[in-house]
Amino acid sequence: MGMKTGAHIVWDWNGTLFHDIDAIIGATNAAFAELGLEPLTLEKYRELYCVPVPKFYERLMGRLPTEAEWEAMDDIFHRYYAEHRTACGLTVGAVELLAGWRSAGRSQSILSMYVHEELVPLVRGFGIEPHFIRVDGRTGPSGGSKAEHMVRHLSSLSGVAPERTVVIGDAADDAVAALHVGARAVLYTGGSHSRVSLEAVGVPVVDTLEEAVAEAARLAA
């Protein structure tokens, strides 16, 4: 058994390190238009958004989408998002925070529900890949929970103990995944969820990544 030491951050990508909320809202509204649904504002989106995503659509449609509707919406969402994500950048302060955490001798990784083979070149393109000991995107179907992915992610990291690990994300599901493996979580309000819905989870909620990292350092100490 090797010594398990050091604080570790597992970063979420979309809506956390990657500031893509505008592309996500646009893609959601493009998918809704397909079914004749009204477009959502950012506030309304954050208030209603939840995973699994079909459940989110149910909140808006008053029923679960059919298999065919879900496939059509999912397809439009991804096409629109792929087109518009090129205009999105990293969240303010992300580059400095990643470099700072690493130069303090601590480790960090990315676990995202974004498709793995699209995630890796994106992370690489921003020049931040060397800051992470592992970058994991989703393999397999979309729409599930992050908890099982988190189990696999953490077990593939050597020298990282769950109790010294903090997950930083923008969704309640990030906290659920953290608790599932015995890690801690900090939730950031710049992504998909409203502060109110995040506060219901019972973990620290912050408005900037700088606060998130400070909180992670405190929790993992």
TrEMBL record:
Molecular function terms from GO: phosphoglycolate phosphatase activity
Pfam families noted in UniProt: Hydrolase
GO cellular component, one term: cytosol
Matching Gene3D superfamilies: HAD superfamily/HAD-like (3.40.50.1000), Putative phosphatase, domain 2 (1.10.150.240)
Alphabetical list of InterPro entries matching this protein: HAD-like_hydrolase_sf, HAD-like_sf, HAD_sf, PGP-like_dom2
A biological process term (GO) from this entry: DNA repair
Taxonomic superkingdom: Bacteria
Protein name, per record: Phosphatase
Species of provenance: Streptomyces variegatus
